[in-house]
Write a structure and sequence with these properties.
This protein is an alpha/beta fold. The protein contains 7 helices and 6 strands.
C-alpha cells in the first residue's frame, strides 16, 4: 500500500473515532462536512482574515458558481467586501454575486448577541425568526442552490459562529443538501 492509501486509512480511522464522540468529520482540503444529504452541496464561507482575491480564488477552487451574500447590510471596513467591490471580484472570477440582505441577522439580534455572548440563544432565536419571517426567501435560495453551486457568505471565519450556519441548515432541509464549511 502506498503513502496515499495509508493517509486515506488514517483519515478514515480518525473520522470514525471522532464520530464515536458525536463530532463531525475533520476538514479535508479546507472544507468540513457539517451535514450529509442526498441533494446538492451548499457551502458556507466567512471573509474574516481574507481579501477579495483570496476569497474568489478559494471559491473557484471549490467550483462555486454563485455567492449568496447573506449580510443584512453588505458593508465592511474592508473595502474588498463592500457590496460593489465584492460584486466586481465575483464578476472577474466568473461567479454570480447574489445579494440576500433579507436573510441577514438584524441589528437588534446582533446587539443582543454582543451583549449576552450567548451564541446558542442567538442561534435558537434567529432560527425561530427565520422560520417565521424568511420562509419565502429561503425557498428561493434553496431553488437557486439546486441550480448553481452556491456558497453562503458572511463575516465570521468559523461556520458555527455565524448566522449563516442556521441559514445553511434551513436551505439544506428544503433540498436535502450536504453542507460544507470552507475554512
Amino acid at each position: 500500500m502506498g503513502l496515499f492509501g495509508e493517509l486515506e486509512q488514517k483519515r478514515a480511522a480518525n473520522a470514525r473515532g471522532l464520530a464515536a464522540f458525536g463530532l463531525k468529520k475533520p476538514a479535508i482540503d479546507g472544507v468540513r462536512v457539517i451535514r450529509e444529504g442526498s441533494g446538492p452541496a451548499v457551502y458556507t464561507i466567512g471573509y474574516e482574515r481574507r481579501d477579495g482575491d483570496e476569497l474568489t480564488s478559494v471559491l473557484r477552487g471549490h467550483g462555486i458558481t454563485a455567492l449568496a451574500d447573506v449580510r443584512e447590510r453588505p458593508t465592511s471596513r474592508k473595502a474588498d467586501f463592500r457590496a460593489a467591490a465584492l460584486q466586481a471580484f465575483c464578476a472577474n472570477a466568473g461567479i454570480e454575486y447574489q445579494p440576500w440582505p433579507s436573510l441577514g441577522s438584524t441589528v437588534e439580534q446582533r446587539e443582543e448577541l454582543q451583549a449576552s455572548g450567548n451564541f446558542g440563544n442567538f442561534r435558537r432565536r434567529f432560527r425561530e425568526h427565520a422560520d417565521r419571517v424568511m420562509r419565502a426567501h429561503l425557498d428561493k435560495l434553496a431553488e437557486s442552490a439546486k441550480l448553481k453551486t452556491t456558497a453562503l457568505l458572511c463575516y465570521e471565519r468559523l461556520h458555527e459562529d455565524c448566522h449563516r450556519s442556521v441559514l445553511a441548515e434551513l436551505v439544506a432541509e428544503r433540498i436535502d443538501a450536504t453542507i460544507l464549511a470552507i475554512q
